[in-house]
Every structure is written in C-alpha cells, then in structure tokens.
User: Which sequence fits this backbone?
C-alpha cells in the first residue's frame, strides 16, 4: 500500500490513469468471457422467437447478420457505420408498427432460411 501512495505522489496524473485503464480492461475482459460462455451454450441457439427478445438477441441466437434481421422486421437503415439494431423488444416494435409477433417471427425465419440456402 505504501508503494501505491509513493507512486501517486510521484505521478499524480499517471497513477489514476493507469488504475482506470486497468479497471476498464478487467471490465471488458469479464464482459467478453461472459458473452462467450453464454452464446457458446447450444440452448441459446435458434431459440423460438418470443416477444421479450430484442432484434440483436434474435440475430445472435439465429446467427444472422444484424442487417438481415433489420430488413426482415422492416426497421429503418442504421445511421453511421456498422449495423445497429434497436434495443427495444419485439413486443415494443410490434406495438409501434402494428405487425404481429407471429408475422415478425415468420419473416425472420424466412430470412434465415434464404440466407442458409445461399452458397457461400
């Protein structure tokens, strides 16, 4: 502990910056490990589409590109780089667009089927 106080006195800006960088590295490492373990579980693959799911969750579960899910749901094209899906649930999207969940699920399944049929 004395060394930490000595480091802080010797480098009052660099020491907190280093500790912050180390904490952020640890946070993102834990997040990556948890994400990898969750999606490695076969029970989370191709789950039946439920109203609580978000488009991003469906994209990961069904192993679909996010833009394919967005197109299937009739969502607007994302602004800026990279495909961004809304964080709203399918239920919320259904209420806003008036499209029933069953029809959304059918669209996503059709998109998945057509993508899987395409040769790579």
Assistant:
């Amino acid at each position: 502990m004395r060394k930490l106080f000595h480091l802080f006195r010797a480098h009052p800006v660099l020491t907190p910056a280093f500790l912050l960088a180390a904490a952020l590295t640890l946070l993102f490492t834990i997040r990556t490990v948890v994400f990898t373990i969750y999606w490695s579980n076969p029970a989370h693959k191709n789950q039946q589409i439920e109203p609580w799911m978000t488009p991003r969750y469906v994209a990961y579960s069904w192993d679909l590109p996010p833009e394919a899910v967005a197109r299937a749901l009739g969502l607007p094209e994302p602004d800026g780089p990279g495909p961004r899906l809304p964080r709203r649930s399918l239920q919320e999207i259904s209420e806003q667009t008036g499209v029933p969940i069953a029809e959304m699920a059918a669209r996503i399944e059709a998109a998945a089927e057509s993508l899987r049929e395409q040769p790579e």
Q: What stands out?
A: The two ends are 57 Å apart (CA to CA). The chain has a mean pLDDT of 89.
